[in-house]
Amino acid sequence: MKESIKFAALALLALAACTPKVEPDPEPEPDPAPVLGESVILTEEAGSSSTVNLNSSAGWTAVSEDDWFSVSPMGGFAGETELTVTAGSANSDIRERVGYFEITVEGEDPVRFYVIQRGARGLELTTTQYTASGSAGEVEVEVWTNDELTAGFDQTWGEIADVEYGVETTLLDDGTTVSELQKARISLTLEENPDIFNSRSGSLSLKIASGDEKTVPLVQNYREFFRRTLALRFTATWCGYCPMMAQSYENAAEARPERFVPVSLHAANSDIPSDGISNLEQMYRIGGYPSGVVNSVADVQNNDPEIITPVLTGLVDEACTLLPAKTCVSAESAFSGSSLSISGTLATREELPYRVHVYILEDGIIASQTSYSSEYPGGTYYVHDHVQRCLATGTDGILVQGEDKGYAEFSVSYDVPAGRIEDSDNAYAVIFVTYESDKVFEGGVQYVTYRNYGQIVDNVFTIPLNGKIDYEYEK
């Protein structure tokens, strides 16, 4: 058997050696570029004509596959000849139509003459409705036209700022003629929509010099609530890996300062334990330290800040696009040194039972911190920021029934335990709103485990212990 196998192998080698090498077919040569004569420009009307002077060294023939124009004469002898090119029909499209004919002379390369018939004067919209955000500012509307354009708007909350023609042009097939059909841009200045729940609309009128006129609705949306992200970090002074994760959170706060709200939740046996930490560990199924939970949808575990920082900022951006805020808070707070009171109004887009939560946080707490990395050092005088000191509304928050496009008032009164806050000048409150959810949010940020914690954080707000916040909107 071994000998027969060896013989078969040798036979195969011999066969391979005798088989001629098959070369792949060469790539076909591209067609040579045609020799171009001058382009013939016709107006859009039927019967429009133009002439071309031809000087041939020998007999010639005109050839064309296009049937919408004619060339006369179609052939001739050596010498000068005037060719007449005539459009057989009107061009009813606003775009030019382009064809060509070729002059062939025996022994010479054919010469191609492009024929371009301009389009009918007209106006073409890029959409059936234009939309704008609810914020004050300038919105741009684009249309296609081949004529002088004027624009008007029928509402006092908007006015035409500018009309610019030729913001985008195209070359036709001859490579030298610019299409008359060009993009025009109309700039409108809009006032802020004062209604935070309903959009409003007006009519944009567009007219070209030849008389064509179109009216298109422009809808200004209601103002979107400004969306922030709640980023919980479960940590402890004895946790040697926690300074690394703290750095990731600080990086994210620097990268998204207006949207990223970090909260440090210290373990019960930490030197600075957070209020209600055992219940929070159970609610978020914390199995080890450090751990992160973002917007009550994403489980974030520790890793190098180069990895976790973009994870956190990605979750912030994802919330803005996939979890836009349904709620916003206007509130006023008062702190006496021993008690905190907050009275507020919750603006809601949907009729849902919401829960309002209030944490009291403190920055600048000096306490020891273990670290296993010299790159992220700890020490005896480590500065701890964003430390949750009090659960002013308990673990579950307070129930507030939201309306469809409505408002609901809420109030919080809380007696701060003596000594709980070291320096009230460094303390502030975080208000966040949640709603129930029985599904895992389908996000797409890498290095994240999306979980169902029974709720989703809809929005987050920070307020001084003695201060006021108003509704905020996306720009």
TrEMBL record:
Residues 45-119 form the BACON domain. It comes from the Bacteria. It holds the Pfam family Omp28. Coiled coil: none annotated. This is Omp28-related outer membrane protein. InterPro entries: BACON, Ig-like_fold, Omp28, Thioredoxin-like_sf, Thioredoxin_domain. Residues 230-266 form the Thioredoxin domain.
